[in-house]
Amino acid sequence: MNDSTITLPWLVVRQDDNGNRYRVGRYATRAEAQKIADSLDSRGHKQLYWVERIAQNGDSADN
């Protein structure tokens, strides 16, 4: 585990039209990550954006 996993445990993830997933960014709080995801989602493109919490082992965990 590294320091960024502890201090930035929330991911914003984007999925494009072809099902490819990309990490958009990491954030300290769920509220901050959700604000970014909502902002990106409101642009009206066909991509999906959502928030995930990184588990203590560094893997993303669904929330």
UniProtKB/TrEMBL annotation:
<dbReference type="InterPro" id="IPR007730">
    <property type="entry name" value="SPOR-like_dom"/>
</dbReference>
<protein>
    <recommendedName>
        <fullName>SPOR domain-containing protein</fullName>
    </recommendedName>
</protein>
<dbReference type="Pfam" id="PF05036">
    <property type="entry name" value="SPOR"/>
</dbReference>
<feature type="domain" description="SPOR">
    <location>
        <begin position="11"/>
        <end position="43"/>
    </location>
</feature>
<dbReference type="InterPro" id="IPR036680">
    <property type="entry name" value="SPOR-like_sf"/>
</dbReference>
